[in-house]
Amino acid sequence: MGMTIDEIKQALRERGWTNKKLAEMLHIHEVTLNLILSGKNKLTDALSAHIELLLNSTQEQIMLFKVTYPEVLCRAWLPGWDELTPEQRQDGLQAVMLEAAKLAAADGEKELSPEQWEELRAFCSTLRGPARVFEYKAEMKPFA
Are 54 and 62 in contact (CB under 8 A)? Predict the structure, then answer.
């Protein structure tokens, strides 16, 4: 998933958007975006995917968040952690997060009235499909 630099530039031209507008929407500095679009800085897969989501449609809303868990907790969630490749770790952690989200949704479901559920279903039907960007990055931080 994601767009190339040329595809991003083309999408901006089609929309009549400036680099400044895109940078503001991405919450990054315009100079940083200009360096990326000129090829002087690397376009990461994550940023490329975020730009693609942003440019896709006005019907889509983007929710970006970062959650950092200590490696000791990740190890507890995935038995055999040391034998897993980074890709397997990422896939496993994504499965854990999705299951946690399902459990949270099930708990929330109990709190919604039938009318609220109908409104939520109607809203969700307008969305094109799930777009998930999940990235596992090992960060070694000492415990305080």
Answer: yes
Taking alpha carbons only, the member of 111, 1, 124, 119 closest to residue 55 is: 1
Look at the alpha carbons of 37, 41, 42, 48 in this order and tell me if their dihedral is positive or negative: negative
DSSP 144: -
pLDDT in tens, 90-126: 888 888 887 877 777 777 777 778 887 777 776 665 5
CA distance 103 to 78: 18
Closest to 36 measured CA to CA, from 8, 10, 73: 8
As a whole number of angstroms, the distance between CA 141 and CA 68 comes to 10
Interacting residues of 93 by C-beta distance below 8 A, sequence separation 6+: 74, 77, 78, 134, 136
In the structure encoding, which two tokens stand for residue 38, read together? Answer: 């000129």
Neighbours of 4 (CB within 10 A): 10
Sign of CA dihedral 75, 131, 34, 8: positive
